[in-house]
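Protocol step 4 of 6: record predicted structures for both targets in the notebook before any analysis. Target 1:
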Amino acid sequence: MGSAVLADAVSGLLESYGYECYTKEPLPCEPDVIIIDSSTIDRKGVDSYPKSRVLLLETDARTKSTARAILFQKVHGIISHTADSAELKKALEVIIDGHAWIDSIVMKNFLLDAGRLSNKGQILSLTPQEKVIVESICRGDTNKEIAQKLHISSHTVKKHLRNIMTKTGAVNRTNLASMLSRASGDEDEDGE
């Protein structure tokens, strides 16, 4: 990490979860996960551990630098500097299980920069019916309940849901609901 204080804080938190942590190189073994921040991602240290999975702690608010890290570095997950300790723990579990993790705040920033999300947290490219489906998902409705409400088949709901996931970049229903509820929460906090 670019900051020794940040490295020690993250290390202490991870040790409280039962992980073995190292903050200085050379490491005594190849770690399962390397947590690195956006200021040090371009250094060649990560390449020394080809089997390790990399979690990028996004400390740079500019999505261009985060996108550059995703494109040109070995990154398996991204977590925002605003994430809490529970999110960090979940991200580590997901990455260790071999899956990718993208924090919903990071995803929201990408959508804002890509012009897919308005400043008020609204997905810009969704059709009116897709917007109704998203609202239903955020309420916890099942595909069957959504189909009944909209007088369409469950298969059609699934087709709309695939399109919504593609447009928003969400990986599943929970991620979609989380991403959009946070966007709405940000709007309320700003008083807009």
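Target 2:
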Amino acid sequence: MSIDVAVVGAGIGGAVLALGLGRRGWKVTLLERERQPHTIPRPEILWGATPAALDRFGVGDLIRQQASVRISGVYFRQKSRRLLSISRRVLNSVGVHAYSTNPATTRASIADAAVATGNVSIERGIEVTEVLREKEQIVGVRGRRDGQTVEYRARLVVGDDGAHSVVRRALDNSLDLQLFPLDFVTAAMSWPDELPPDRVSVWLNPDAFRGAVPVIGCMPWPAGRGVVLLPLPHEWVAPLLKSSPDFFFGELARLTPVADALRERLRFPEDFHHVRRPFGHAPQYVADGAAILGDAAHPMSPAGGQGANAAIWDALALAEVAHEAMAANDVSRQRLSRYETLRRPRNANSLRFTELASGAFGFLSRVPGLSRLAPAALRALDSTAWLKGRIVSTAATTFITR
């Protein structure tokens, strides 16, 4: 099959890229390994600038009104004692909107809009194993579906295929991946009446940083749903998920006053999923006939809510550069390099949130007892309104292409 653009992976960046190029008249095929869209629950923040940038493609309001909940604040507590609040007042003071989005709904909405252009198709169940070359030019991909070899010839190949990207390897890119020092255990649930429907609530127990459950976050989704997040050191996850429901929810009871409400809504361990997050930055984003974006170029942790936003802004920049390159019949590395020039500095800044968080958690793990200072540190930050505003403003704008 011959097309204009083959996108390996149907993540949020690939879907936005397909939408942007499909609206410009290019024939795009998204090649996805999974036969069904991913349903593993995870928290995801889209900062206000991101759906606003998608308004021109007609999906901004869809994300804001159907796939997300606009967040009125983020509250950190130790049991019932407030430690830190990022309130609506703080958000308004720096002109920031934040949306807690259900990733599956958001991706499906964007992918549907891309297909509706009439120029985009999604092929599922395809495991791309290699790229095709003619001399130095990448001209397509080869893979497997149902035991059969399939090939797609394309003027441009784009990798949105995650931290272990096949397309990135074909660019002769060696990415030194590091593992974030915390793993993430997540579960989707119906939203408890005990929690405000538009707030992110986080509880911490500094005494539990020696082998129990030290932190839990609850983030609302639309349609009366939400997601639970437990960051844990890697070596704690397997024993915890093998423990009894009584032990697990007993640990939550030490942490949060809504433990009983969570127990009514969640089956343990059936509803819980374990995710590890590597991070790093590819040395180059483009080659002759190919480009990478999102986690293929810069995998990162949830710190600062950067990942999905950075991937979307990658896609917006690449759609513009790729459109001009294909219109000029020149998809050389030199022509595509403007995309890397636009995005690399922004993504390097977004990755600093992950790097700082990784260093902080690594330091806490090496110094016993230091975690007990966390409540005092959060209360000190809570008393400094200008600093809270600056942190939020930076997180909400770092990824924007200037």
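Step 5 preliminary note on target 2. Residues 2-72+97-177+279-365 form a domain with the FAD/NAD(P)-binding domain fold (CATH 3.50.50.60). Residues 18 and 188 are 28 Å apart (CA to CA).
Proceed to step 6 after PI sign-off.
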